[in-house]
Amino acid sequence: MEFTKHAHTETEAACCSVHAKHDHSHDDHDHSHGDASSFKTYIPALLSLLLLLGGIGLDYVKASFFEGYIRLAWYLLAYIPVGFPVLKEAYSTIIKGEIFTEFLLMGLATIGALALGEYPEAVAVMLFYSIGELFQNAAVNKAKNNIKALLDVRPDIAHLEANGNYKDVQPNTVKIGDTIQIRVGEKAPLDGTLLNDSASFNTAALTGESKPKTIRKGEQVLAGMLNLENVISLEVTKKFEDSALSKILELVQNATSKKAKTELFIRKFAKVYTPIVFFLALALVFIPYFFVSDYEFSQWLYRGLVFLVISCPCALVISIPLGYFGGIGAASGNGILFKGSNYLDVITQLNTVVMDKTGTLTHGVFKVKELKSEIDEQEFLTLLASLESQSTHPIAKAIVAYYGEKSFLPLSDVKEIAGHGLSAVIDGKQVSAGNAKLLKKMKVAYPAEIDEKVETIVLMAVDNVYAGYVLIADEIKDDAKQAIIDLHANGVKKVVMLSGDKDAITQKVAKELGIDSAFGDLLPEDKVAKLTEIKADQSNVVAFVGDGINDAPVLALSDIGMAMGALGSDVAIETADVVIQNDMPSKIASAIKIGKATKKIVYQNIGLAFGVKLIVLVLGAGGLATMWEAVFADVGVAFLAILNAIRIQRMKF
């Protein structure tokens, strides 16, 4: 698959990977990690290690034959498997005009060590560098496991209906309106509407939640959903490349292209730092000639070579991008998609979160919350549902859903009163249902307390006599209240809710959830105005969280836009900077935690690399550090930084 190659290439560039570059040059599909993790990749390092240990053993016992050209040849055989790729890379970068790279530093240092007769040290430098590369590749693979899982959720074939039979075709050849079959245990290859009465799906590949989801006839099934029960059929609604899953995969593919400021700084720093340390090493070799009475070239050359190995910037340019990449991977495993590592940085600075209500803190689905009737309750509900079955309004659908899978009574003389409700003759009775304005128009008396209710209410009259009401409300999500608590606990000082719903309902929801301030009755342009007003305070770093459709303008205007419920929204994926895949507002705080953990790890790695290198550089310049200490200061620190960077994969958020 294309993502694997693209993303790893990005990481290789950032992490200065030598072996990975060679291994992946012939990859075509999703096997790019197979070479990096196969035994074949470890052979050069293993061969070099065995020869080095053998050479050190022969040196220790002072074997009579192990001297002169035999000893040199032995260590050259140990050097070539791990040293040649680095020297080749140094040559390639010089040809491209990039002279001062870590490859040149390592090459010069080890060739110089060989020239001075420090054969074991020369081999050890390249060997441990090679081992560091292998660990780096393993760490990159581990960091990408959660992201790579997305690549396996879309099947390579679709069972297309043709003249009553089904044939296997490539999903990208299926057209909108075609019918495809999904068998038990298979994943939907395309977006479509369900043609069966109902079906159960596992949506874990898309949302990270393994809880089965029941979808009914006419409802949307998304590519990547796993069919759990019966053989089903879908009518395709989107082309292969336009499916929600394809949009998510595209997002993930581009996630590594937007770099954090720290990451960009380290890259620029390394370009300046490397030539500086190269010339400092030269100065360390030659300048003492003019000031030291017993100057010995080989001694000061060795110090210069040690200085070169110590100062190699590998620990920085490997571990920092890997830290951010690990953060993106950890977020993906938690159902959160960051469009770039720069947003991992921004999210740590948030102090104000502005949220939409419907679809973000609430399910965005009307449900009957209360029923009160003056007649038999079952008769009331049957009459009301039979009447509302004639409407496609969301409120009418909520009443019909509440009624359940029962038969409706026959109707006649159905009339719609615009902006008021419906009326019809049912079972010989004149039945009317709608808002309070309808009953007022009909001059039907009803209890005065009904006018005090802030939720949507449907009243019914039978033969011009008030019969009762149902209260319709949007359900608050189970984790919404905890989400607000977690946001405040993670440094967000103010949570604001903006909604197009009635202000009375908006204020009630805000009070129930503990939101700091709320504004209702807002049009999209009003939301933009409110967000602009909030951002006028320069101290505010603002995130907007919405469904990504009506809220696209404010998503774009905020410092970081977060889309909820984006699996069905192309606009969300295009506009938002962060996508919450499973609709849970509590994931906003999780995203902040992941951002903070990533930043902490990155800064730890910077401190570790600079601290150890500075100490050993001083010791090396003073002749107190050997090539072995230099190996630890470079490759050892890089190794520790890599281990630190992958810690985030084991953290719970």
How does this structure look, described?
This protein is α+β, with helices and mostly antiparallel strands and 653 residues long. It folds into 3 domains: 282 residues, no CATH class; 85 residues, Calcium-transporting ATPase, cytoplasmic transduction domain A, CATH 2.70.150.10; 112 residues, Calcium-transporting ATPase, cytoplasmic domain N (3-Layer(aba) Sandwich), CATH 3.40.1110.10. The chain is built from 23 helices and 22 strands. The strands form 4 sheets. Strands 10-22-21-20-11-18-19 form a 7-stranded mixed sheet, sandwiched between helices. α20 links the parallel β20 and β21. The longest helix has 36 residues. The protein is elongated, with a radius of gyration of 33 Å. The protein starts with a helix and ends in an 8-residue tail after the last helix. The N terminus is likely disordered. It is found in: Cell membrane; Membrane. Keywords: ATP-binding, Cell membrane, Membrane, Metal-binding, Nucleotide-binding, Translocase, Transmembrane, Transmembrane helix. Belongs to the cation transport ATPase (P-type) (TC 3.A.3) family. Type IB subfamily. It catalyses: Zn(2+)(in) + ATP + H2O = Zn(2+)(out) + ADP + phosphate + H(+).
